[in-house]
TrEMBL record:
<dbReference type="InterPro" id="IPR013815">
    <property type="entry name" value="ATP_grasp_subdomain_1"/>
</dbReference>
<dbReference type="InterPro" id="IPR000291">
    <property type="entry name" value="D-Ala_lig_Van_CS"/>
</dbReference>
<keyword id="KW-0067">ATP-binding</keyword>
<keyword id="KW-0963">Cytoplasm</keyword>
<feature type="binding site">
    <location>
        <begin position="238"/>
        <end position="245"/>
    </location>
    <ligand>
        <name>ATP</name>
    </ligand>
</feature>
<feature type="active site">
    <location>
        <position position="205"/>
    </location>
</feature>
<keyword id="KW-0460">Magnesium</keyword>
<feature type="active site">
    <location>
        <position position="352"/>
    </location>
</feature>
<keyword id="KW-0133">Cell shape</keyword>
<keyword id="KW-0479">Metal-binding</keyword>
<dbReference type="GO" id="GO:0046872">
    <property type="term" value="F:metal ion binding"/>
</dbReference>
<dbReference type="InterPro" id="IPR011127">
    <property type="entry name" value="Dala_Dala_lig_N"/>
</dbReference>
<dbReference type="Pfam" id="PF07478">
    <property type="entry name" value="Dala_Dala_lig_C"/>
</dbReference>
<keyword id="KW-0573">Peptidoglycan synthesis</keyword>
<keyword id="KW-0436">Ligase</keyword>
<comment type="pathway">
    <text>Cell wall biogenesis; peptidoglycan biosynthesis.</text>
</comment>
<feature type="active site">
    <location>
        <position position="16"/>
    </location>
</feature>
């Protein structure tokens, strides 16, 4: 049987560029080579699509954060949308175009804007090319935490209390200080208790997220809003929840099937045991091996874990999820569960929560990748 040819995309213009590269390294190394032929297509930080660049299989986070760059032997990718699955071309040094061959599907291992937000999904919809993961609506809605919360709340799924602001009209010359009295009044009116988390609405991997500890500290709040605004003009200000964050991997590999939920897992922040007021920022996720570890299943009562799984499936269906998503929930000491966010293309390294959760549930990494691809090509 002929192998299916799968474009595996990585990099991209988002802040999560390097994490996408590391996820792709894991996917390519684990891909069943007897069934699939990978066609790696990288996207530089400026948005240039290339083939024949540096081999992602060689990348390892221990060696630093990789970056997709055009090399002497790389070629730009050109799309002919009208040709659909045969519309992936590469431009040679002499300017001629060469087909990359018939493509059966795309696995866009892209995190963040311009990859996980519905934009590239819309492109492949226009081309008629199957792709792994959520469609345009779910991708766009879940990339924007404000609209995720709007959809979930409409479906009766609890979410963290918060407000959304538009920083485009704020006074950047004053470092947003001039806007803080009105913003602090809004926070008080909404009844939000400190600490607060200030975060970009459309970013991932904890980029731009700040914990604001002190009620009435306008300078602290202004600094947090300014940091978030570097990543997005739409900003969420959410009440900190005294809760554990328990994550659940959801899988619907074929349209019409009922989504499946993995055993829930938990990121354990190891420094909290020593009294450190630690939260799960970028360094804790990726750069500091001693900062955290993954536990699947999470150490919680069986009935709580089952309710986490049920809410994860409900949330996935509420946003019209497809393929894969990781649903992150807060679980309070009294057992209340609320959804924090939905990641439609979660970290996909072998040690990321999504693959580890399915491995603990009985689906190993390679089988998981195969299942996702088969779901859009069979």
């Amino acid at each position: 049987m002929a192998r299916k040819r799968i474009v595996v995309m990585y990099g991209g213009k988002a802040d999560e560029h390097s994490i996408s590269c590391i996820s792709t390294a894991g996917v390519l190394r684990a891909l069943d080579a007897d069934r699939f032929e990978a066609v790696p297509v990288g996207i530089t930080k400026t948005g240039e699509w290339i083939v024949d660049g540096e081999d992602p299989r060689e990348w390892n986070l221990a060696d630093g954060l990789p970056v997709v760059e055009a090399t002497e032997g790389s070629r730009r990718v050109v799309l002919d949308i009208a040709l659909g699955k045969d519309g992936f071309l590469a431009r040679n040094a002499d300017g001629t175009l060469e087909s990359l061959g018939h493509i059966d599907a795309v696995f866009p291992v892209l995190h963040g804007p311009y990859g996980e937000d519905g934009t590239i999904q819309g492109l492949f919809e226009m081309m008629g090319v199957p792709y792994v993961g959520c469609g345009v609506l779910a991708s766009a809605a879940c990339m924007d935490k404000h609209y995720t919360k709007t959809l979930l709340a409409a479906a009766g799924i609890p979410v963290a209390p918060g407000i959304t602001i538009d920083a485009r009209g704020y006074d950047e010359a004053s470092g947003f200080a001039a806007d803080m009295p009105a913003l602090m009044a809004r926070i008080a009116e909404a009844g939000l208790a400190y600490p607060l988390f200030v975060k970009p609405s459309r970013a991932g991997s904890s980029f731009g997220v700040t914990k604001v500890e002190h009620e009435g500290d306008a300078a602290e709040l202004a600094a947090a809003v300014l940091e978030a605004s570097r990543h997005d003009w739409r900003i969420l200000i959410e009440q900190g929840i005294d809760a554990r964050e328990i994550e659940c991997a959801v899988l619907r590999d074929k349209a019409g099937e009922t989504p499946r939920a993995s055993l829930p897992g938990e990121i354990v922040l190891d420094r909290r045991a020593g009294g450190d007021d630690q939260f799960y920022d970028f360094d804790s996720k990726y750069m500091d091996a001693d900062a955290s570890h993954v536990e699947v299943p999470a150490d919680a009562p069986a009935d709580v874990l089952e309710r986490v799984r049920d809410i994860a499936v409900r949330a996935f269906e509420a946003v019209d999820g497809m393929g894969l998503s990781r649903v992150d929930s807060f679980v309070t000491p009294d057992g209340e569960i609320m959804v924090n966010e939905i990641n439609t293309m979660p970290g996909f390294t072998p040690i990321s929560m999504y693959p580890k959760a399915w491995d603990a549930t009985g689906i190993d990494y390679t089988t998981l990748i195969t299942t996702l691809i088969d779901g859009v090509t069979e």
